[in-house]
Amino acid sequence: MSAAALAQFGTKHVAKGIGRLATEVIESGSGSYVTMVGGRRMLDFTCGIGVANLGHCHPAVTKAAQSQIGKLVHGQINIAFQKPYLELIESLLPLMPHPSLDTFFFWNSGAEAVEAAVKLARHATRKQNIIVMQGSYHGRTFGTMAMTRSKTIYGDGYAPLMPGVFSVPFPYCAQCSVAAASGGTHSFDNCCMDPVLQLELLLKRESSPADTAAIFIEPVLGEGGYVPPPPQYLAKVREICDKNGILLVADEVQSGFGRTGKMFAIEHWGVRPDILIMAKGIANGLPLSGIVSRKELMDMQKPGSMGGTYAGNAVSCAAGVAVAKAFQEERILENVAARGHELRGMLEGCQADPKTGSIIYDVRGLGLMLALECKPGGGYASKIQAKCMERDMLVLTTSIYDTIRFIPPLNITKEDMAKGCQIIKEAIAEVAA
Ligand code: PMP
């Protein structure tokens, strides 16, 4: 079938509920590029939404998966331990943001892992309610749809969803009116106090600490616009959790595995989560997710109450082991810092230039989890995205605000980053003209 015929076939037979950026069909991926049927090669600054973080078909990950597939594909963790599952834990233990995080449960997708964390939090605390952040994304299952507060589209028409979910604002420095009034200075007092106050009020007015099991938080809002919190915010949330016997759950599905320049984003603020949720980058594209917590909490769950047919698939776990090894051997975090600096510098340059700055509202993010928020009203983000596509480059928009997020591979070369920066710069200039 030709590329056009394949796309037509897909449009006819694939569920419409799945939104799609491009009409073309991907045939293969290698490093920072994907190749479409018909031969069009595109620079991929999406990484399949932050999954193929070590580039498409990373050789060592591919080799590990290929070797495992010949040994054991499916072990079924409810029947017996399987070797790659345990090897993955061994590889992940030294990477955890806190030594108390020592007991693991692996699943397939991010949403399943979020639900596993809800189960653990409810069971361990014997409390029901969950607090989430406005702007957060946790998935598309019934439990996680209830927790997702980034766009109404995710829950529209699917109610009733899981009950017992409350939400509070996440500090959004760029749009903080208090900061704006004080000349744009972001400090704890002017940026965090309101969201912290809202959280304290929620615990007094709507969801008492006696009924609240956990606060779920993405340390950097993902689908909500790549928004890092101001410095003291997460520590303050930790304090509130400790004071009220509430668990702090970090959803690092998008921000984890090096994306922000640390192995896990929460390390930027030195805050200990009670439960950490991982997925996406964990196996560089093979379906795998997991939660980690302290043994004392995990061991409260009754044997048999957790698990699933495909949970912690052996091939995915073997790929995960190779990912963890690559992080060390290939000094990935150093590359994130260097390439992140270059990308950010280019974006800030566009913001400072009066010609392009006229459409830019904010440049933000950490490491290679960077975003460009455009001024409202012009639909600029989608226009810039389209101009990048014309130049054979994939980028994604995010959030209800007019924002583009940049998710390049963490091991992208200096040359490919320079090429990507040039394309983005041209696209912004063309839209601003
Ligand atoms: N949590 C976060 C922070 C996410 O970004 C996502 C996916 N975008 C999920 C959970 C859900 O993961 P999945 O799509 O694998 O179910």
Automatic annotation (TrEMBL):
Transferase among keywords: yes
Gene Ontology MF annotations: identical protein binding; pyridoxal phosphate binding; transaminase activity
Keyword terms of this UniProt record: Aminotransferase, Pyridoxal phosphate, Transferase
Cofactor(s) annotated in UniProt: pyridoxal 5'-phosphate
InterPro entries: Aminotrans_3, Aminotrans_3_PPA_site, Class-III_PLP-dep_AT, PyrdxlP-dep_Trfase, PyrdxlP-dep_Trfase_major, PyrdxlP-dep_Trfase_small
Top-rank lineage group of the source organism: Eukaryota
Family: Belongs to the class-III pyridoxal-phosphate-dependent aminotransferase family.
Family matches, as PANTHER family: ACETYLORNITHINE AMINOTRANSFERASE, MITOCHONDRIAL (PTHR11986:SF79), AMINOTRANSFERASE CLASS III (PTHR11986)
Protein name according to UniProt: 4-aminobutyrate aminotransferase
Organism: Ramalina farinacea
